[in-house]
Structure formats: C-alpha cells, structure tokens
Amino acid sequence: MEGVAEEIRERGVTGTTLDDIRARTATSKSQIFHYFPGGKEELLLAVAARQAERVLEDQEPHISRLDTWSAWQNWRDAVVRRYELQGVNCPLGVLIT
C-alpha cells in the first residue's frame, strides 16, 4: 500500500499505471489481481482507505479525548503542525484530485 501511495503521490492517479505499481512494489499482475480483482479502481479504493486511516492515526490521542475546550485547541494545534510539516502532499489530496 505504501509503495502504491508513493507512486500515486508522484504521478497522480491518472498518470499511474498498473505497470508503474508493479515496478515500484515488485509484484506481478497476478498478485495484484489476486488481492484486487477489480483492478486499478479497487486498488485505489484500498489505498484511499489506508490513507484515511493514517490521517486519523496521526491525530491520536487527541481525537479520542475531545472533552474540553483545551483538548480541542491541542488537537487543532497538532493537526496544523502536522500539515505544516507535511507541506502540500496531503495523503488524501492526490487521491481526491
């Protein structure tokens, strides 16, 4: 999943082919279609789901403890710091666009 996500971040969804993915991840077409019988579309959905999980994981433990105003502010600050460090390469942004 990480290799596929990196490939998509570099080339974009439409610029990434299954051959690009195979080369980056050292997998065969049969392996890809074994785990993702729906092909590229199913693989992209799996990558998007994993990236969404990562976004939520990055926000823990803050997101589980939003029971005070201070906790909300700490969560906000953590999210802003994370995305300032990350820059324009949002893990979901490339998949959405």
Report on this structure.
This protein is mainly α. 68% of the residues lie in helices and 0% in strands. The longest helix is centred in the middle third of the chain and has 19 residues, at 40-58. The radius of gyration is 16 Å and the shape is elongated. It starts with a helix and ends with a helix. The model has no long low-confidence stretch (mean pLDDT 86).
State which percent range the strand residues make up: under 5%
Largest sheet: none
Instruction: Compute the separation of the termini in Å.
Output: 19 Å
Structural class computed from helices and strand pairing:
mainly alpha
Helix content range of the residues, please? 55-70%
- Taken from the alpha-carbon principal axes, the silhouette is elongated
Write down the secondary-structure element order. HHHHHH
Point out poorly predicted stretches.
Answer: none
- How many strand elements? 0
Mean pLDDT across all amino acids: 86
Counting DSSP H or I runs of 4 or more residues, the number of helices is 6
Rg computed from alpha carbons, rounded to a whole number of angstroms: 16 Å
Describe this structure in a few short sentences.
The chain contains six helices and no strands. It has 97 residues and is mainly alpha-helical.
